[in-house]
Amino acid sequence: MLLKYAIKEFLDEKRFKNVSPKTLSNYKHTLEQFYTYALENEKIDLTDITQNTIKGYLRWCMEVRNNRPVSLNSKLLSLKIFFNYLENADISGTNPPKKIEYLKTDIKIHVPTDKQIREILSYFRRLKGRDKTLYSVRDSMMVVILVSTGLRLSEMLSLKWENIDFQTGYMMIFGKARIVQGIPISERLKQELLEYRIYCEKNFGQLPEYVFINRKGEPMTPDAVKNVFKRLNKVMNYKDNAISCHKFRHYYASVLVKNGVDGFSLMGLLRHKDISTSQRYVNLFSGDLRDKNERFNPLNGLDI
Hints:
Blueprint: H1 3-16, H2 21-40, H3 51-63, H4 69-88, H5 114-131, H6 134-149, H7 153-157, E1 164-165, E2 170-174, E3 180-184, H8 187-204, H9 222-236, H10 245-258, H11 263-270, H12 275-285, H13 289-296
Antiparallel strand pairs: 1-2, 2-3
Helix pairs in contact: 1-2, 2-4, 3-4, 5-6, 6-8, 6-10, 10-12, 11-12
């Protein structure tokens, strides 16, 4: 089968399986880019594709597109899923990327400092107190909920008022892979959300369906949120350590771990599918090992 028809069949199958638009877009982008690379190298049939073809494409992405290891691993994953599908569907008798290992990546998680978080909250508090516009009140609430829950961008934007149970202190989150999960909300966050809900009801004449909306009462887009933080970084002059939605998630995780939350509890709160992802945070932020060694070292209780 020609590679372009195999790609079309794979994407059609994923649409039929109702994968998320973001996942489908990632598959489409990688496979179309891979097809262009293969075509330029005169490889148009599935039988033309070898392990060296896959490696050549990844090298091209690294050297010409300047892709980093994380991006390269993401593209390799898409190719593995694509060829696994072809193999399982008896469309292709070979699976070129099957034995290609992922690239090693440095584990670097940039976390906002406590000072930055206080500066940001103080900035929005002043802004909200001065003009009470939808943007100032909404953006302030956005920062508060990110700090308090570590929501992903998609989770935050899909949050509806009906998903928040103020009596039980839980809200339902629609996470990755369309998994629905309840997470607790603190009393302080509950109070902030109640005040924000009252503001929205007065501002729009009725309560909008979604928690984070634009001036028309429609749900915010990912680009709109990114623009909020783009403006914030400019105002706060954060150049080397710019703030983004996902960095609040890192901050949330780091504070929990530093205060003694274990890996399994963190896994539930962050809605990770794999404990290894949560353990990464634990390993990075489990406090000052030197301090713990000093406090609990076996020699402390021995007479020498």
